[in-house]
Amino acid sequence: VESAHSGRQDYDLLVIGGGSGGLACAKEAAQLGKKVAVVDYVEPSPRGTRWGLGGTCVNVGCIPKKLMHQAALLGDRIRDAPHYGWEVPQQVPHDWRKMAEAVQNHVKSLNWGHRVQLQDRKVKYFNIKASFVNEHVVCGVTKGGKETLLSAEHIVIATGGRPRYPTNIEGALEHGITSDDIFWLKESPGKTLVVGASYVALECAGFLTGLSLDTTVMMRSIPLRGFDQQMSSLVTEHMASHGTQFLRGCTPSRVKKLPDGQLQVTWKDLASGREDMGTFDTVLWAIGRVPETRSLNLEKAGVNTNPNTHKILVDAQEATSVPHIYAIGDAAEGRPELTPTATMAGRLLAQRLCGQSSDLMDYDNVPTTVFTPLEYGCVGLSEEEAVARHGEEHVEVYHAFYKPLEFTVAERDSSQCYIKMVCLREPPQLVLGLHFLGPNAGEVTQGFALGIKCGASYTQVMRTVGIHPTCAEEVAKLRITKRSGLEPTVTGCG
Amino acid sequence: AKCLCCIGNLSAHQSGLLQKLLQKESAYDYDLIVIGGGSGGLACAQEAAILGKKVMVLDFVVPSPQGTSWGLGGTCVNVGCVPKKLMHQAALLGQALSDSRKFGWEYNQQAKHNWETMTEAIQNHIGSLNWSYRVSLREKAVAYVNSYGEFVEHHKIKATNRKGQETCYTAAKFVIATGERPRYLGIQGDKEYCITSDDLFSLPYCPGKTLVVGASYVALECAGFLAGIGLDVTVMVRSVLLRGFDQEMAEKVGSYMEQHGIKFLRKFIPVMVQQLEKGLPGKLKVVAKSTEGPETMEGVYNTVLLAIGRDSCTRKIGLEKIGVKINEKTGKIPVNDVEQTNVPYVYAVGDVLEGKLELTPVAIQAGKLLARRLFGDHLEKCDYINVPTTVFTPLEYGCCGLSEEKAIEVYKKENLEVYHTFFWPLEWTVAGRDNNTCYAKIICNKFNNNRVIGFHILGPNAGEVTQGFAVAMKCGLTKQLLDDTIGIHPTCGEVQKREVF
């Protein structure tokens, strides 16, 4: 029956969603000789923003985020420069338009690059909005309304997610924007209220502040839920002492547009019950993301989702409730919402489908970095998770505050530059998690993630000689435990 | 003839003898005397003090031929790693200033750089470090003497201070951590007119148009930041760049520098330096000879910086008096795997050691572990395998493990697999910087599970990227484990996931 089917399918593999996971899967499968098609479609945001091939990361995620973060960091460097002898004016203004154009041009070049890559690998690309007709057939609709039917032996759903809008706040949809829009704004967002405590909220608030915009973050409860909470506090502490305003324990109740175009936001302080009001040019919702699964007609294919999250249920092979239909990336339940995991999952899946390998994706110890003004890189367990899993008596936490050398001459505040390594207490003290707060956190964390993958112990980390002078060497110099109660401040060269 | 102090000590010993007999150690003034207050010396001394020992550190800086001197802390703090990285940072900030315009920051003029502002800030920071080391030694009850130490007989040294006053001290054990100083060419005009890294970081005037002689990392790092702050820089190289480092990477380092305005004179050595004009800086004429033929050339520079190597400070510290063997040719001290010299109570750490890497963290690690073995009943030896390092040239080069040449020599080419890739840091895209320049390679041993035996990366923040990889290599990193690890996006570090053969 199977061979009869495959003869009649248009494609060996159909990938729904041309983002990090989808493209990686498609390209790998094509390279391994399969007949592959990718369908990608961007439903415009409520604001009307749309973008090209490449998915969230390329268009409205990692890439423009890191570039705007870089723009903000360069602002800091301009302030450092006079300390190092450069004759630069005190106040240097920033032109949002110039930055946005440069960032948007780069993103467009990536869109183009992806299209060329698909072409080179003979992957068929359709810019159509897909939904299931049955478990092997998908219907795609173009922007103009024209319909196509595509059939495939295997189907991979990699439709990702989109920002959530609040449902019970008057004016939220009409007057607020999200991360889908911020990177594509031609004009400066001006005085901005960022609602949310996710890394998206903090990263956006961070770079907006760094670009000299009046920025406020409104959080209902804790920052960076799911991340190590001590580190998360240090992240927000740094932001607060560097110009970002915080409204903690507050939720918005209403957004109204004023005659002059500004937005009036009313919010409630949850502790006191008191209402307050403020005026902003822009309101940015960053309260979470929802998977793009509801318009796929998954029930027509028999693909099950989690009724609460709407994410697609998958097993260790990335397979859904239907054996030949898979899901990877942000749309899949229980997966980290990160580009590199989606990419790797996509590649490995393609290899398995083509019989090239039986390797499964390992979702343990996935490193990540939050690109806030002071960056936070981490891999492995948070301190809370480690204690919950192993018990406090079996966990040893080594920690240190440190001062990056470059901050000294620049007279920069390093109060939140902090590292902690969470280990098992029993020798050789296996490293369970590493948390680094400081400049270039992503660069620092990557190599240590490799070490943890190799089963690094505290002993092995200590036996590794440091590179001097760097911030990363401070990890290899961690000596003081939380248990000892000693002051964890580093001084001098040794 | 005995110095006055020794006679004085004898009576002190007699009167204090009973008290000392009641103590753990014998009739020595100290349990440990460390000669040299640099990275290795201070680490060793402080660790020994923490373990309850009576310790003394002697540190003395013989002024350079140009008259430069500095405080406690050794090469790294005063005339090495610290000022070097800060000046490198100044140069990087210059680059950042020009990148920032592409990211929307608005200012018109080409930013100018003021040498004195930078040097003053850096020297202030160094001063604070000198001070903090003195405080640290005091807090740990380590006796610190700002005097030149040399052996006079077994277990005894003579310490001479700036005024010429001599005092003698005895100890049960000694650690030599005297480090090195820059080498001169031995040609006419070198000591009178040329400067070295000893002088550069506290130079009270801008060096101007500079000729850097040498191809060491010191030469390239200095040339790099001098050009980065806007100076006209030429590097005169006798043969290869970064001898001992992976040569493919070394050439890429040099090539980037060349593309960014630094001139290279390859296969020339200076034969004479003449002063044309006095001044701060003055004008110097350099005559150089080709290493390949009769060709000579001349150039005029404000400053000539010699960076042709460093010599150990071991020849004038009385080692011959107690029979400590040194390599006569290099001046370095051979030690066993517990840093012990041929004289059992004399040890050595840091740059003076033969066959060991000249790096601060190595010296610190060796010094600490040595103290723990001597006084703390520990057995751990310093692990010199796979020590990572970074060259802070304009495009930074980080590495750990073997160069490709060394790997081929040890393992043979057919047993190796080399994975490599060029990469374009995301931050360079909008800034409009080169897209086929940053480069990374991994050398694997096919017959040991594709174990990673060499890691090389050329790109921004190379030091930050390399450190963690060094830990992974210490844990036996293989290509498979590398492939299995997820990258952090977007970073340069994740580029290791993208190699091709």
UniProtKB/TrEMBL annotation, chain A:
Please give the positions of the paired cysteines in each disulfide bond: C57-C62
What cofactor(s) does the depicted protein rely on?
A: FAD
User: What GO cellular component is one of the record's annotations?
Assistant: mitochondrion
GO terms (molecular function) for this protein are: flavin adenine dinucleotide binding; glutathione-disulfide reductase (NADPH) activity; thioredoxin-disulfide reductase (NADPH) activity
The protein's superkingdom reads Eukaryota
For this protein, what is the EC number? 1.8.1.9
Instruction: Tell me which UniProt keywords the record has, alphabetically.
Output: Disulfide bond, FAD, Flavoprotein, NAD, NADP, Nucleotide-binding, Oxidoreductase, Redox-active center, Selenocysteine
Q: Which residues form the FAD/NAD(P)-binding domain?
A: 11-346
Which EC class does it fall in?
A: oxidoreductase
Q: A GO biological process this protein is involved in? A: glutathione metabolic process
Instruction: Give the note describing cofactor binding and stoichiometry.
Output: Binds 1 FAD per subunit.
Q: Which positions does UniProt annotate for NAD(+) binding?
A: G196, A197, S198, Y199, V200, A201, L202, E203, G288
Checking Gene3D superfamilies in the record gives: 3.30.390.30, FAD/NAD(P)-binding domain
Ranges of residues in domain Pyridine nucleotide-disulphide oxidoreductase dimerisation: 366-477
Protein family (similarity comment): Belongs to the class-I pyridine nucleotide-disulfide oxidoreductase family.
What name goes with this protein? thioredoxin-disulfide reductase (NADPH)
Q: Tell me the name of the encoding gene.
A: TXNRD2
Automatic annotation (TrEMBL), chain B:
What's the cofactor?
FAD
Give the Gene Ontology MF terms in alphabetical order.
flavin adenine dinucleotide binding; glutathione-disulfide reductase (NADPH) activity; thioredoxin-disulfide reductase (NADPH) activity
Task: Tell me the keywords, alphabetical order.
Answer: Disulfide bond, FAD, Flavoprotein, NAD, NADP, Nucleotide-binding, Oxidoreductase, Redox-active center, Selenocysteine
Under which main EC class is this enzyme filed?
Answer: oxidoreductase
User: Which amino acids does the record list as binding NAD(+)?
Assistant: G214, A215, S216, Y217, V218, A219, L220, E221, G309
| Superkingdom | Eukaryota
Q: State the Pfam families in the record.
A: Pyr_redox_2 (PF07992), Pyr_redox_dim (PF02852)
Question: Which Gene Ontology biological process is one annotated for this entry?
Answer: cell redox homeostasis
Binding, FAD = K85, G149, D351
Annotated FAD/NAD(P)-binding domain ranges read: 30-367
* Protein name according to UniProt: thioredoxin-disulfide reductase (NADPH)
User: Which species does this protein come from?
Assistant: Rhinolophus ferrumequinum
> Lineage of the native species?
Eukaryota, Metazoa, Chordata, Craniata, Vertebrata
Gene encoding this polypeptide? TXNRD3
